[in-house]
Design a protein that fits this description.
With 276 residues, this protein is of the alpha+beta class. The chain has eight helices and six strands, in the order H-E-E-E-E-E-E-H-H-H-H-H-H-H.
Length: 276
Amino acid sequence: MFRRLNWILCACSLGTMLSACLESNTAGTSEESEGIVAIVDKELAGVVQKGPFVTGSSIVLRETSAEGNFEPTGREFFATTRSDKGDFKIDGLNLECQYVRLEATGYYKRETTAENSVCQVSLRALSDINNREQINVNVLTHLEYDRTLALIKKGKTFTEAKKQARQELMKAFYYDDLAEDSENLNINNSGDADKALKKISTFVDHILFGEEYGTVHWHSRDHKTYYTQYEEEPEKYCEEVQNYLDNFVDILAGDDYERFDSQMLHSVLKGWFMED
């Protein structure tokens, strides 16, 4: 059901970022050495937001290896969201490395209607927690996740990779670099970067479920068809929703954007993100 939308949306967002985002970055080994730092008795708090994840949504923090290869060690720490604001806390973290992977799964309050989403979604974040006590998981942390790892494999340091991934992602949505780590952002705050996160999150929600830009508009002839698809096979439908979201992440992780037609949904993205 999402096949056509996958191709069209990725065609636009990734095609538009080709000329503006990618600089002549080459693979290599950075002279900067960030080093590995063990984490001792750390308390970490944050919020999970697509819109805000509802009470009881699951959060998993995965330790990565002290070898600095960002591979999980197998040790995991668990939490759940404490309210419908998506807030969580993990106490007593003792880790061999400051780089962690987080994954949150749950229903969320839709940005425009405040209704619960019909499907659960999973969002990820990759972060250095050495000098932070707050880490938020959101659409931007999810979309930049694999791109950051890909750039690290090409020789970038974590800091360099995160910066480049963020710049490329923001440019894809017609924003200049807002110079703020995605883990710091909150859709309820009033900063420029927070407002950008909320607008992008709302757009993605419309793509997944909305009537104007989403599945009703592009994939069904009427509302009845759309809801019948969900009611008949809700598990399969929700799996396709997650696959669609992750397809974005997979393609953003690569360098080869030239195969996409940048005009397919250019007017939709431009109208959404460049309006006054």
